[in-house]
Amino acid sequence: MDAIDAFQDHYPDNVAHCYGCGSQNPHGHQIKTVWDGDETVTRFTPEPYHTSVPGYAYGGLIASLIDCHSTGTAAAAMYRQAGRDMDSLPAFRFVTGSLHVDFLKPTPLAGELVIRGRVKEIKGRKVVVETTVSAGDVTTARGEVVAVQMPENFG
Ligand SMILES: CCCCCCCC(=O)SCCNC(=O)CCNC(=O)[C@H](O)C(C)(C)COP(=O)(O)OP(=O)(O)OC[C@H]1O[C@@H](n2cnc3c(N)ncnc32)[C@H](O)[C@@H]1OP(=O)(O)O
């Protein structure tokens, strides 16, 4: 387990292959998300190959960071609401029902991005998460994700 004890470190191995957040996917982003009070935070440094316009990050990367940060936040929020440890069973696993992203400013490729999430609503199997992406003091993207608990018969 990572020193920071991220939400994603608690995903069972059989659902830890996601391109955005799976610790078992060597080609993926392998994001790591933690609580910061009532918010959640992920730190991610894009690589030169994440380019869109030279010097700036590809929008699909930004969207996928918002996506997996938010589904991880949804799972953690559900455990927190239930007063349960993230390793306890049955596992709360969330998939994306809806992903909305507003690209507010170009996101520079130089340096770390800070992704912050806030739970807007928890209702039944659904969690709505608002997430921002910031480079330094500048918020470059804002997203909203409807995360839905993964049905047992997913697929
Ligand atoms: C597990 C670790 C991996 C992490 C994944 C990381 C993120 C991903 O990339 S996941 C892959 C992309 N997503 C998918 O493939 C999901 C495909 N879609 C599905 O399987 C289904 O449509 C699914 C599960 C989202 C919802 O279906 P279902 O379980 O039948 O939901 P349902 O019972 O109708 O709705 C539950 C609630 O969610 C809401 N909801 C469902 N879909 C949406 C949607 N597209 N937009 C907005 N709200 C939605 C419903 O309105 C309902 O809300 P309310 O209770 O307020 O009425």
From TrEMBL:
Q: Which UniProt keywords apply?
A: Apoptosis, Cell membrane, Cell projection, Cytoplasm, Fatty acid metabolism, Hydrolase, Lipid metabolism, Membrane, Transit peptide
E.C. no? 3.1.2.2
Renumbered to this chain, the signal peptide range is: none
Localization in the cell = Cell projection, Ruffle membrane; Cytoplasm; Membrane
Biological processes annotated in GO: fatty acid metabolic process
Q: Membrane-spanning residues where?
A: none
Q: Which reaction does it catalyse?
A: octanoyl-CoA + H2O = octanoate + CoA + H(+); dodecanoyl-CoA + H2O = dodecanoate + CoA + H(+); (9Z)-octadecenoyl-CoA + H2O = (9Z)-octadecenoate + CoA + H(+); tetradecanoyl-CoA + H2O = tetradecanoate + CoA + H(+)
Question: What sequence ranges are listed for the domain Thioesterase?
Answer: 55-139
Instruction: Please name the Gene3D superfamilies in this protein's record.
Output: Hotdog Thioesterase (3.10.129.10)
A family per Pfam: 4HBT
- Residue ranges annotated as coiled coil are none
Spell out the molecular function terms from Gene Ontology: thiolester hydrolase activity
GO cellular component terms, alphabetically, are: cytoplasm; membrane
- Chief location category: membrane
Q: Which family does it belong to?
A: Belongs to the THEM4/THEM5 thioesterase family.
Q: What is this protein called?
A: Acyl-coenzyme A thioesterase THEM4
